[in-house]
Amino acid sequence: MTNWTISRILEEYPYSMSYFEQNKLDITGFENQTLEEYLDHFSEVELEDQAIDKEKVLSDLPVYIEQMQAFLGIEKKNQVLSLTILAGHDKSGVTEGFEELTIHTSQIISIVGPTGSGKSRLLADIEWAAQNDTPTGRSIRINGDVPDNKWRFSSNNRLVAQLSQNMNFVMDLTVQDFLNMHAVSRLVEDPQSVINEIIKAANNLAGEKFDLTTPVTSLSGGQSRALMIADTAILSSSPIVLIDEIENAGIDRKKALELLVTSDKIVLMATHDPLLALMADKRIVIKNGGISKVIHTSDEEKELLKELEKMDTLIQHARQELRKGSNLTSDLLG
Ligand SMILES: Nc1ncnc2c1ncn2[C@@H]1O[C@H](COP(=O)(O)OP(=O)(O)OP(=O)(O)O)[C@@H](O)[C@H]1O
Description:
Structural class: alpha/beta
Bound molecules: adenosine-5'-triphosphate
Strand order of the largest sheet: 5-6-7-3-8-9
Shape: globular
Number of helices: 14
Number of strands: 9
Distance between the termini: 56 Å
Helix content: 40-55%
Oligomer: single chain
Radius of gyration: 23 Å
C-alpha cells in the first residue's frame, strides 16, 4: 500500500481519512502523491514541530485499516479491491507497452488481439497470480501487494472463476441438486432462495428456458453457460471472473456482463466480438504475446456501440426468425 497514491488509499479504504485527521496530516492537494512522497514534503524542523514520525505513519496505516475493518465488520480475508498487472515481455522478449495496469471491482476489461497472440496466456497469468514465473514474466498484485499464498495454492479460496466456451457437465444431477451442492458448500443460510434467484437469472440470459428439474447433462451449450454465469455472479466467492470468448455462447451477452459487474466482480474477457470489446471500460491489445497498449473506451466508441447494438439486435432477430422457420422479409425485420 505504501506505493499507492493517497487518493487510491481513500478510494479503497474511505475510513482511512480519520487516520490522517487523527495524525493531523493535512493531505489536501497531495492526493495524487504516495503517502511517502507527501511525508517527504515536510522539512526536518516541521517534522519535529508537529511530532511526525515518518516511519511510524507509514507502518501504522495498514494496521489502522485492518483494525477499522474488524471494527466495522468488513470481511477482510477474501476482500479483493483491485488487481494490478505488472508488465513482462512478449514472445520475442521485448518489454510490454505498459508499466502497470490496475483494475478495480465492478470494472470490465476486454482483451483483444489476433488468434494465437496470447489472450488466453494473459488470463492464465491472472488465474495463477503469476510472480514472474510464467513464459510472459508478468507479475500480479492484489490490492497493490504480492498476493497471499492462499490465493495461489488453496482450492477453496479461489481468486478466479473461469468461464469458457467449452462447458460440459459430466455429473448426473438435476439443476436443483447441482446448485444445492454449491450453496451448501458455501454455507448459504437460505439455499433455496439463492437457488431460485440463480435459475431466474440464468433463464434471463438463456434463449430457451429450463427449470430446476432439468438434468444438467441435458442442458444445451448456451443454457449451461447461462447457468454457470448466474452461479458465478450470485454464489461464487471468487472476486475475479475471467471469460474466454462467450460471443458464440448463445446467451444475452450484455445482460451476462451486467449481472457479473453488479455483483462487484472484476471482469476480464478475451473476445473477438466488437460489442463485447466496446462494452468494457478499457481494452487490452495483445500482439505477439505481449500487451502492446491499453485503450480507454472513448465517448465516440460508446456512441458507435449503440449503433452496433442496433445492428446486432437486427441480426439476432433474423436468426430467431430463421430458427422458427420463417421466410425473411423487410417487413418482418423492419
Ligand atoms: N509472452 C509470451 N512468451 C512466450 N510464450 C507466449 C507468450 N504469450 C503467449 N505465449 C504462448 O503463445 C501461445 C498462444 O497463446 P494463446 O493461446 O494465449 O493465444 P490466444 O490469443 O488466446 O489465441 P486464440 O484467440 O486462438 O484463443 C501459447 O502457447 C502461449 O503460452
